[in-house]
TrEMBL record:
SUPFAM superfamilies: Homeodomain-like (SSF46689). This is Putative AraC family transcriptional regulator. SMART domains: HTH_ARAC. One of its GO terms (molecular function) is sequence-specific DNA binding. Pfam families: DUF6597, HTH_18.
Length: 278
């Protein structure tokens, strides 16, 4: 993890420099469904376990993961090829020994469009890809060792996904998510529904089927990400003003959301950021 603040990443003691991340473009073939590919690798050496936390985006991931012999991650022995549904709270993983992950982050509605699976049935789950998409994609981890090369894993994952892309594209709800992410005036579900010309009921149904969570969750998640990023960039920011700017009812609403998701208040988080950068 670098010292540069990044939306969605949660600062933890000892996380800077503990792992290496890269991001790769999806390529023209997969761009309608995949946002980007990514990789993370680590070697803890003699250091103890490290918990990494991410305030997840409304997106699903197909991952190829590896680690030391006998290691277990997300309840599965390594190596493994896994599907991660949308995480409704905070994504947490404990990094131990040597390991790595190469993943495809789908667009918010991309995995539903690519697989035709009901996204709501996958929320808050991690499942073997083999069980959902078959052995060809689900066995990409076969024969992997703890010193696997991310570039080669990426090549295999990209090729497998390209080989199973849909015959035709479909128009999904993804552009609505993009609008929520970029339009700070949209802070309520009824505003979103009015802005895109859908009834609230239709909006709710399509979000759950195509993304896996409702529009209220998406609105709240983007606000929380922005709040954390603001504290990372300026731990001295006025919390009351920040809460109002991001669409929270007041500072108490911001604090309650922070505590519910991250287990600490915005003030405590800001103090920890300040101590790590000073």
């Amino acid at each position: 993890m670098s010292s540069t603040p990044e939306r969605g990443l949660v600062r933890r003691p000892g996380s800077v420099g503990a792992f290496t991340t890269h991001r790769y473009p999806p390529g023209a073939v997969l761009a309608p469904w995949v946002e980007h590919f990514w990789s993370v690798t680590w070697d803890r050496g003699g250091a103890g376990p490290l918990e990494s936390s991410v305030i997840s985006f409304p997106a699903m991931h197909v991952t190829v993961e590896w680690g030391d012999q006998g290691s277990v991650r997300h309840g599965y022995p390594m190596p493994a090829t896994l599907l991660h549904g949308v995480v409704s709270r905070v994504f947490r993983v404990t990094l131990t020994g040597r390991g790595g992950v190469v993943g495809a982050r789908f667009r918010p509605d991309g995995f539903h469009a690519w697989s035709r699976l009901d996204a709501a049935t996958l929320t808050d789950t991690v499942q073997p890809v083999r069980d959902l998409l078959g052995a060809e994609i689900g066995s990409l981890h076969a024969g992997m060792t703890p010193d696997a090369e991310p570039a080669e894993v990426l090549r295999k994952l990209r090729s497998a996904l390209e080989g199973h892309r849909p015959d035709k594209m479909s128009v999904g709800i993804g552009p609505v998510v993009d609008r929520i992410a970029t339009d700070s005036t949209l802070v309520r579900v009824d505003q979103v529904a009015h802005a895109v010309g859908l009834s609230e009921r239709t909006l709710q149904r399509r979000f759950r089927r195509e993304i896996g969570v409702g529009p209220k969750w998406v609105l709240s998640r983007f606000r929380l990400q922005e709040a954390v990023l603001a504290l990372e960039c300026d731990p001295g920011v006025d919390l009351s003003e920040l809460a109002i700017r991001l669409g929270f009812y007041d500072q108490a609403h911001l604090t309650n959301t922070f505590v519910e998701m991250l287990g600490e208040t915005p003030a405590a988080y800001a103090a920890r950021v300040r101590s790590q950068v000073s």
